[in-house]
Each structure stands twice: as C-alpha cells, then as structure tokens.
Known about the structure:
This protein has 312 residues and is mainly alpha-helical. Helix content is 69%, strand content 0%. It has 16 helices and no strands. Helix 7 (113-124) crosses helix 10 (170-195). Mean pLDDT is 88; it is low at 1-7.
Amino acid sequence: MSKKAVYKPAKKQLRKRLYEYRWVYVLGIPGLTMMFLFHYLPMKGLLMAFQDYNPHLGILGSPWVGFKHFQTLFHDAKFYAMLRNTLVISGLSLLTFPAPIILALVLNEVRNSGFKKLIQTAVYLPHFLSWTIVVSLTFFLLSTEQGLVNKIAMAMGKEPTAYLFSTSAIYPIIILQGMWKEIGWGSIVYLAAISGVDQSLYEAAKMDGASRFQCMMKITLPSIMPTVVVMLIMRMGSIISVGFEQVFLMNNAMVKRQLEVFEVYIYNNGIASGSTQYSYTTAIGMFKSVVNTTMVIFANWLTNRKGYEGIM
Length: 312
C-alpha cells in the first residue's frame, strides 16, 4: 500500500504535465525529427571505422577488420605531431575563454544605449563573416609586401616581417583571428545571464557604498558563474578539434608542420588525394569524438566535485 501511495500520484502528475504541455511537445516534433535524421541516424556510418568499407558493398556487406584502422592511426608517424598541434591551438584558444565574459561585463556597464548598440553591432558582425574573408583581411594586414602593418614599419625605416610565414607567429595569429571573430557572439549568452541578475542586489550594494567595479566583481560575476561553468564544460567538448577552414586557408609551405592537424589530415587523405580511405578517416573522426566526449564527462565530474552544477 505504501508503494502505491508513493508512486501512483507521481504517475498522475506526470500524465497531467504531459497533457498540460502537449502543444509544446507537438511544436518540438519537427526539431526532434530533424535531430534524429541529421544527427543520430548518420551515426550508423561510424561502423565504417571497424570495416574496410567498400561503397559497392555498403556498410552491411563490407568486411569487418576490428581496430585495424585505429592501430594504423596510432602508429602513423604524423599522429603525435597532429595531436600536439591540435592541443596547442585548442589550449591557446581556451586561454581566450574569459574574453567574451569580460566583454559582456564591460558592455553591461555602458549606460548610453546608442553607444552600447553601436559597440554590440561592431563586435557581433565578424561572426557572420566567412573564414575566407577573415583570412583575406589578415593577408591585407600582415603580408610581407602588401600588408598594412609592414608598410607602416617600412615607412618608419624598419625591415618588413614575414608574419604569415613565421613559425613563431602563426599560432598567435590564429588565436587572435578566432577571438576577433567570435568574442562578440560569445558574449550574447553572458549578457543574457547578466540580464537575469536580481536588481535589488545592486540597489542594496549601492546603499552600502559599493562602487560599480565592486558590484561587478561581487554580484554580477558570481551570479553568472553557473552559465560560465556550463559554457566551459561545452568548450571542453572541442578540445581536440580545430576549425578546418581557418587552418586550411592559413596553411603554407613554411608553417605546414605547425598547422598539420587532424582536420587537414582527413581532408588530404579522404578528399584531396582522391583516395578511398573512408574507413581510416572515419576512425580518425571517431577517435576525436571519443576524446572530446571524455573531456566533457571529466569536466562535468570535476565541476560537480567543486560544488558547481554541471550539465548532467
């Protein structure tokens, strides 16, 4: 009797909730259908990583080879170089993670609405530019002969510097490109979180004589910390992934070793070479997915251990 008394109301409450929000679930059907068709259904292609895939035989007819392609990957002479380059670029990008948070905090303190909208438009715009345009702008600024930076340097009597061909400068250039392109778009989430902070906290702090900077550090930042933690966990899900378009367009003979990452390697072996290494390139992609998923789980576990609320 006690079990029925506990579970029966819970079932009724669930049915009541399902009926109450039935139209919300109906509205969600197209999105769920699209997610199933374009995200979950294609996952059957991961089976190719364990086969010698032949398009004529299909996934079900291709012979199974187990972990052969993963062994080939781990014994590849370029594997550790690609892993190092990917982790360096991702690690340096992770250092820029606070940039959108700082921008959101600064924008929140701007009181002139017209000026605030102008700044927001200016920092959001780069997100909508393609990497081709961003790399072209970089070439316009940093190329040895036509670059604006080198023209200014030569006008001052200095020798031009080949920034785009420098092995020591290529990583900072890529990081700055990514930060300039995404800092404004990334700040939207934090501005939304800031808008939900209880305004009475600021009023009480001002009555106690707190400055705007103290309100920012003692109220705003702690209040949006749950959002920051979630975004950081999600960022860890791309720790071993690098944007293909950016790296591919910035590549040249002088910095090829520094920009040899998994994405470029997959392109060169799976598309550019005209080969049919479907299974091998699928194994590389699966290796990346497993590492990224593991990092998300670890980051979430560490977050929960530190007393914050993770994503699961």
